[in-house]
Design brief:
The chain is an all-alpha fold. It folds into two domains: 10-243, no CATH class; 261-381, no CATH class. The protein is 61% helix and 3% strand. The protein has helices at 10-37, 45-58, 63-75, 86-89, 91-106, 109-115, 123-129, 133-148, 150-174, 206-211, 227-237, 261-269, 271-292, 315-327, 329-346, 352-367, 372-381, and strands at 41-43, 196-197, 225-226, 241-243. It has a two-stranded antiparallel ribbon. A two-stranded parallel sheet has the order 2-3. β2 (196-197), α10 and β3 (225-226) form a beta-alpha-beta unit. The longest helix is centred in the N-terminal third of the chain and has 28 residues, at 10-37. It is elongated.
Length: 387
């Protein structure tokens, strides 16, 4: 049996597998995801082509297909048109067979035409990487066997081939919309899997990404680690990358006496911070009302559902929640005014003037409600700044 060019201890082969698969993860998150799909950064042509060539060798994925499918996922998230939502297809199918959903969608010419614009269309893409996308993985197999031997080479190649289908198509697209914690109340079911991660390159911070899709940085809290962002910063220091956009940080300025168009734009920009504050305010009112109501203990266990989409509240909890709102004017008003506030940025067909009027009316109602938490939210809202 052919022994290969190297003869290493077992841990040497494990190390080389981890290095090569990590390079693939870095290529996916930096080049395919943040650079191509979302245009969050620009890459030097040499860096971009290295990533493109490495992905051709290790995955056989076509840049236009990947970017188009991912853009469609964001545009149609958690609907029947989402290429790989566990809310539609079920967690088991997406987790263990997500790659087949990707392949199926890649054959949809309508998806490629509508969502695949702006991806590379140079000579190499048209004559090598796209028509011969399976040739790259075959070349990698031959290279692995030549360097590491027949048995070790084939095993290393197999790990390379399943790495992205499992971690990206399965774990991120599956568990990343099914299980984990959420920093932001985005309209989809996206979650963060871990506050830190190396194997997935920062992609495990999926809720952060869906909240700010065009951000080159996926971490948002101090305890979250985005190794992909670390690599981008290093490339930037070397003049090989230029970051175009990151998630906005909440900025507070002087309290505006009048809610104007600048206030409206600042609220829309910082809407996730506002929703996070609103969720905490709802919990405060909930605790106060439980202490005030006679036999308030019967409403325990409802806190987590106060800021949830009503469609996701279990039927047995929904009845108790409606009973609580019926007995507490303060909580009912705070709860329902949250829906009125989110409508300000969800009414896509409304004019700027209509949205401004809705926001002004919301602030007037909040400040005249006699509910401390609503008054504080209105004050914070009128203090948001864009600069």
């Amino acid at each position: 049996m052919y022994a290969g060019m190297v003869d290493w201890p077992w841990w040497g082969y494990v190390l080389v597998v981890l290095v090569m698969t990590h390079m693939t993860i870095a290529a996916v998150t930096i080049f395919l995801h943040r650079h191509q799909a979302h245009r969050a950064l620009d890459l030097h042509p040499a860096v971009a082509h290295f990533f493109r060539a490495w992905l051709w060798l290790t995955t056989g994925m076509v840049t236009r297909e990947w970017a188009a499918i991912h853009r469609k996922h964001h545009a149609r998230c958690e609907t029947a048109e989402d290429p790989h939502s566990p809310q539609i297809f079920g967690i088991n199918r997406v987790l263990w067979a997500g790659v087949f959903l990707y392949v199926k969608e890649s054959r949809n010419l309508g998806t490629l035409e509508r969502y695949g614009r702006g991806t590379p269309q140079d000579w190499l893409e048209r004559h090598v990487y796209t028509p011969w996308h399976k040739a790259g993985v075959a070349i990698m197999l031959l290279a692995d066997v030549a360097v590491f031997g027949l048995l070790a080479g084939v095993l290393i190649w197999l790990v390379q081939m399943v790495w992205i289908p499992f971690w990206a198509a399965g774990v991120i697209n599956g568990l990343g919309h099914f299980w984990g914690y959420r920093n932001f109340s985005s309209a989809d079911a996206s979650t963060n899997l871990l506050p830190w991660g190396i194997l997935i390159g920062g992609e495990e911070l999926h809720n952060n990404h869906h909240a700010f899709a065009t951000s080159a940085k996926l971490s948002n809290r101090w305890y979250e680690f985005d190794i992909g962002w670390l690599y981008i910063r290093l490339l930037s220091l070397c003049g090989l990358a230029h970051v175009k956009k990151v998630a906005p940080r909440p900025r507070l300025g002087a309290l505006r006496p009048v809610v104007d168009f600048e206030t409206l734009q600042a609220v829309i920009t910082h809407r996730y911070d506002l929703l996070s504050r609103y969720a905490k305010s709802l919990q405060q009112v909930y605790r106060e009302e439980l202490a005030r109501l006679q036999d308030g203990k019967r409403f325990k266990g409802l806190k987590r559902w106060l800021a949830a989409d009503i469609a996701t509240v279990p039927p047995e909890m929904l009845g108790r929640l409606e009973s609580l709102l019926g007995e507490s004017r303060a909580l009912a008003m705070t709860y329902r005014m949250r829906q009125d506030l989110t409508a300000v940025w969800e009414r896509s067909s409304a004019s700027r003037e209509q949205l401004l009027t809705a926001l002004q009316e919301w602030c007037e109602r909040a400040e005249s409600s006699g509910i401390r938490q609503l008054h504080e939210l209105s004050t914070r809202l009128r203090s948001y700044s864009l600069a």
